Prior knowledge:
Blueprint: E1 14-20, E2 34-46, H1 50-59, E3 63-70, E4 72-83, E5 88-107, E6 110-130, E7 135-156, E8 166-181, E9 186-198, E10 204-217, E11 235-239, E12 259-263, H2 282-293, E13 300-304, H3 312-332, E14 340-344, H4 359-365, E15 372-374, E16 378-382
Parallel strand pairs: 1-6, 13-14
Antiparallel strand pairs: 1-7, 2-4, 2-10, 3-5, 4-5, 5-6, 6-7, 7-8, 8-9, 9-10, 11-12, 12-16, 13-15
Amino acid sequence: MKSTPSKLATSSGKLSLVALAVLASSVAMADDSGWYAGGNVGRTAASIDDARITSGLLGQGLATSVISDRDRDTGYKIFGGYQYNKYLGVEAGFFDLGKFGYTANTVPTGTLNGDIRVKGLNLDLVGTLPITDKFSVLGRAGVTYTDASDAFSGTGAVSVLNPNPSKRGTNYKLGLGLQYAFTDSLAMRLEAERYRVDDAIGNNGHIDLVSVGLIYRFGTKTPTPVARYAAPEPVRQIVAVAPPPAPAPVVMVPAPPSFERVTLSATELFGFDSAVLQIPQPKLDEIASALGQHGEIMDIDIIGYTDHLGSTQYNQKLSEQRAVSVKDYLTNKGVAPERLKAKGLGEANPVVVCTDKNRTALIKCLEPNRRVEVESITIERRVK
């Protein structure tokens, strides 16, 4: 913060914060969109320009002997916001950066005291970059509406013409931080922010706020407990036909043939949040082989599904990509593409709902929902 007899440091006044927020995507937060609120408290710092104070007093014919700066204080902010997805949010709130000042002793004998109080409102764009399931890096840029209140007083040889100037106006702010999620609803933030401030007598500067705080997200989903799903094993049924009766003396009736029916299914083909098939895929190889032997089987539906983690639009696209990956795999194994129909149903038709609070356990529990079903493959072949 820079200041002179008429200027108190880079920070001036009451601010009204305005902050805008950053891009989007999906991975690793249960439901990334929604409203939240929070607050931070921490240490503020302003740089006071002693050289300008000395110069200003010298212009009044006064020499400066000692300047004592009060350039540290406690600040806080309270805010609310909306998270559009795991990368982008918008935040608005109120902040109080504290009070700063100085005392200058002069020759001839006198003192000049200057103080400034800075408060305001902000609107910020907040960008979030997930590093792990728990940790994220934050970046913010925003605008502020400031109300800077100065107060000056003099003794002895120092006289002050305007003891209580003030100014309101807009400016900008920037910030970086870290976030740690205790749960899907509660998280902690550590942030460093710089507020650009103009005081009531035309001086420009900044105030830094280093703070720690908590945020609470509203409306997070709590899954209903149900029994966990076990993927069915391929079922092989053999239908036996009773032996034919003893041959009649005249007409011999041939025994009806026996049939073996094999039903094939495909599950657990992909990793979390992925449309890339894990290799090897013996189950898909078995399906490809069976289809190669039975060209009469047509109109085979390949349906992709995801869990509910992430946005609905993203999950729909991911499920379609998964179904296409399975279709491409079977095509590369020699199955004619016109026999296969790939489509995605996103989060639809879940086979399991989980209540795990721990994110890692939740992702593991929801694994059966991330699947591709190859439907209506029923193969009949005559048993010799």
